[in-house]
Design brief:
Two copies of one chain form a homodimer.
Chain A: E1 4-6, E2 11-14, H1 22-25, E3 32-36, H2 40-43, H3 46-53, E4 59-62, H4 71-84, E5 88-93, H5 95-108, H6 117-120, E6 131-135, E7 147-152, E8 157-162, E9 170-173, H7 183-201, H8 209-231, H9 236-249, H10 263-275, H11 279-293, H12 295-308, H13 317-334, H14 348-361, H15 374-382
Parallel strand pairs in A: 2-9, 3-4, 3-5, 5-6, 6-9
Antiparallel strand pairs in A: 7-8
Helix pairs in contact in A: 4-5, 7-8, 7-9, 7-11, 8-9, 10-11, 11-13, 11-15, 12-13, 14-15
C-alpha cells in the first residue's frame, strides 16, 4: 500500500426529507447566495423545499449555471458575491452547479488578477468562501470532494482544480429527488461513477486488497441496481444505492493508497470541449479503447474485474483482461450508452487529430505510467 | 437504506515515516500534552520518533495510561492540563491511550461537577480541547471516530461516550510501528476489528448492498492477512492492510444507512469490568453464543457471510447461518484466540449471574431488536 493523506470534513446528510436540515446547518450571521442551474429544481420540487428551509435566512439567488460550467458564468456570480457582501454559498443542483460554486468560492477570495489562473497555472487556493450543497444528481461525487471542473469556451479549455478550501461544509443527498431525472442524466451519472471507479481501480497492484474489493463491489452494485431504476424510476432503494455509489465513487476514500489513472478523463474532457459531448458519453467512448491500448500493463486488474464483477470463466489472464473490456462496453451498450464517436455524429479522424495536436502542444503525459501522450491519445480516438 | 448523518473531519496520514509530519501539523501557539501508556513506545522507537518531531514545540508528557483506561488516571491528567494551561493533546499509543485522551479533552472543559457524568448520565460534551493521535495499535478505530470507553473500577463500570468534539484533528498511522507488537495484542486487534464489523453487518437487511459488500470484504481481508503477520511480523503490506481494516472497521463509514447491533460489546464490557479479560477476548467469548441465540433473526446476513466470506456450500439459509457461526469460532481458534470462559479460568455460572444482575438493575435492552435483556445475557454467558 502506498503512503497517503486523507481529509474529508464534509458532513453528509443522506435520505428522505433531509433538505429540511438546511435550517439547522446554514449560518444565520451572514448573507447566503443560493446557486443553481437551468431551472430543473423548480420542476422537481427541490427549489420549493430549499426555499421553505431558507425562510428567515438572509439570502439571494443566482441561477443559470450550465452543464460543463463556464468561467464567464462564474465570474458574473463572483461579481455579485462581492457587490452583495455574500458570506456563504449554497449550491442546489448537480455536480456542474457545485463545481461552479467551488470556483466562485475560491474566485471571490482570489488575490490575483484572474481566478482561472488557479486552473491553468495551478495557483494554490489560499482562501475561499464557505460553501455547502444540496446535490440532486448522482454522478460527479463533487458533494464530498474538493474537485471542480470549469470550462472556458473562449479558450477551448475544460480543466479542473482541487483544494481543501472548497470542500462543502455539508452536503444533503435525498435520493428521492432523482425520481424525475431524465433517463439520459441517470445513465450519464451511472457511467460517470463506473469510470471514476475504473480510474482508481484499474492500474497495477500495490497490495491493497480491501480497497480493490470495495471498488469491485461498487461496480457490481452499479451493474445490479441500474436495471432497477430503468424499470422503476421511483425505486427508492435503487436510487439510494446508486447515489451512494456515486458519492463513494469520488470521495477518494475507497482508493486510498492505490495507484490511479485518470487518462480517460483527460482525453474525455477534450471531446467535451471540442464537440459538446456529455461528460459521461465522452468517457464511454474513450474508456474501452484506452483499456485496449493499455491491456498489457493493466491485465492483472482487468482479469480480476472479469472474474469478480462479470463472472468470466477464463483462466488465462490476458484473455480474461480482454473479455473484461468487452464486458464493460457490453454493459454500457445494455443501458443505452453509446460508445463510438460515429454514434454521436463525430468524425473520429478529426477528433483524434485535434486531441493529438492539443496534447502535443501542452506536452501531456497521462495515466499511471505517464505513457498516454499525444500519439497514444490519437491511437485511442482513431479506434473510437 | 436508512437515513444517516456522517461527519468525520479527522485527517489521516498513513504509511512509513509519517510520524515526522507531526512537526507540520501540531500547533505552535499553545502548550501540548503528550499522553501515552505503559512505556512500550519507549521500546519500539515511537517515543524517539515523536520527540524528535516535537523538537521546538512547547510540550509536557503524561505517561502511564493503562489498558481499559481508568477514570482516576484521566482525572490526574485533567488536573495537570488545568495547572499547566495545556491547549492541545497528543495521544501516542493504542486505543486505550487515545480513549483516555478524548476523555481528558472533554473533562478539561467540562463545566459540571464530575466529568464521568458525560458517560453515566449521557451529558453532552459542550466543548473539548483539540487533540490528535499517533496510533500504534490496529484495533479500536479510535483514530478516526469520536468514541471513547473509560473504566471506573471503583464503581465496577466500563462504559463509553461519543462526541463530535473529540474527533482527533489528525491521526498518524505508520504500520511499521506494529512490527514489534506482541502476538497477543496483534490478535486482540484483529478479533476486535472482526467483531466491530460483525456488529455493524450482522443484523437484518435494509437494502444496503454496497455497505454489506464492503463489510464482507473487510472480513475476508482480515482472514487472509492474519496468517501473514503471524508468519512474518515484519510483513509491511499485511500489517498495513490489517491496520487499514481496523481504522475502517470503526470509522462508521462502511455501515452508513445500515442497522447495527453492538450487544456483543455490551456484554463483553461486563466481562472485562468483572474479570479483567482483554476486550477482544471478551468479544471472542460472547459473539459465537450471542449469534446462536439470535440465529433466527440474523439468518439472512449470517448465510451471506457463510457464502461470501467462508465459501460455504449449503443452500439452506438457516443451516448456512449455523455454519457461519462455527466458521467464525473456527477462525478465532485457528489464530489462537480462546472462545470459552473456562479457557480463561472463569466460572461461567458466576459470570452469567453477575451480568444478569447488573443488566437487570440497569434495565438493559441491547441489540438491533432491543431483545438482549438480562435473561438473554445470562443464557449467552451460560453457553460460553
Amino acid at each position: 500500500m502506498n503512503n497517503f493523506e486523507y481529509y474529508r470534513p464534509t458532513r453528509i446528510l443522506f435520505g428522505k426529507g433531509q433538505i429540511e436540515q438546511l435550517s439547522r446547518l446554514l449560518p444565520r450571521d451572514t448573507k447566503i447566495l443560493m446557486v443553481y442551474g437551468g431551472g430543473s429544481i423548480k420542476k422537481n420540487g427541490v427549489y420549493d423545499q430549499v426555499t421553505a428551509a431558507l425562510k428567515g435566512f438572509d439570502y439571494l439567488e443566482f441561477g443559470g449555471v450550465e452543464p460543463n460550467p463556464e468561467y464567464e458564468t462564474c465570474m458574473r456570480a463572483i461579481e455579485l458575491v462581492k457587490k452583495e457582501n455574500i458570506g456563504f454559498l449554497l449550491s442546489v443542483g448537480g455536480g456542474s452547479t457545485l463545481d461552479a460554486t467551488k470556483f466562485i468560492a475560491a474566485g471571490a477570495k482570489f488575490a490575483g488578477q484572474d481566478p482561472y489562473d488557479i486552473i491553468t497555472k495551478g495557483l494554490p487556493v489560499a482562501d475561499a468562501l464557505p460553501l455547502a450543497s444540496v446535490i440532486t444528481l448522482p454522478a460527479t461525487g463533487s458533494e464530498m470532494n474538493g474537485n471542480a471542473v470549469i470550462s472556458r469556451a473562449s479558450m477551448g479549455l475544460k480543466a479542473s482544480f482541487v483544494s481543501e478550501k472548497v470542500y462543502p461544509q455539508f452536503s444533503v443527498i435525498d435520493p428521492s429527488v432523482t425520481f424525475t431525472l431524465p433517463v439520459r442524466q441517470t445513465l450519464n451519472g451511472i457511467v460517470d461513477t463506473f469510470v471514476h471507479t475504473m480510474e482508481q481501480y484499474c492500474t497495477y497492484d500495490v497490495n491493497t486488497p480491501l480497497q480493490d474489493e470495495w471498488m469491485l463491489a461498487l461496480m457490481r452494485v452499479l451493474i445490479a441496481e441500474t436495471p432497477k431504476v430503468l424499470a422503476d424510476p421511483e425505486d427508492f432503494n435503487a436510487r439510494a444505492n446508486i447515489f451512494w455509489c456515486a458519492t463513494c465513487g469520488l470521495n477518494h476514500f475507497m482508493s486510498l493508497g492505490c495507484v490511479q489513472d485518470w487518462a480517460t478523463h483527460g482525453i474525455g474532457h477534450e471531446l467535451t470541449a471540442d464537440y459538446g459531448l456529455d461528460h459521461a458519453q465522452a468517457l464511454a467512448v474513450v474508456l474501452p479503447r484506452l483499456l485496449q491500448t493499455q491491456k498489457a500493463t493493466k491485465k492483472g486488474k482487468l482479469a480480476k474485474l472479469a472474474y469478480e464483477v462479470f463472472g468470466v470463466n477464463e483462466p488465462d489472464e490476458i484473455k480474461a483482461a480482454g473479455v473484461a473490456i468487452y464486458k464493460i462496453e457490453e454493459f454500457f451498450g445494455s443501458i443505452g450508452m453509446k460508445t463510438h464517436l460515429k454514434d454521436y455524429g463525430i468524425d473520429r479522424t478529426e477528433a483524434a487529430e485535434k486531441t493529438r495536436a492539443k496534447f502535443a502542444a501542452r506536452d501531456i503525459h497521462l495515466g499511471e505510467h505517464a505513457n498516454i501522450t499525444a500519439d497514444t491519445a490519437y491511437e485511442i480516438l482513431m479506434g473510437s
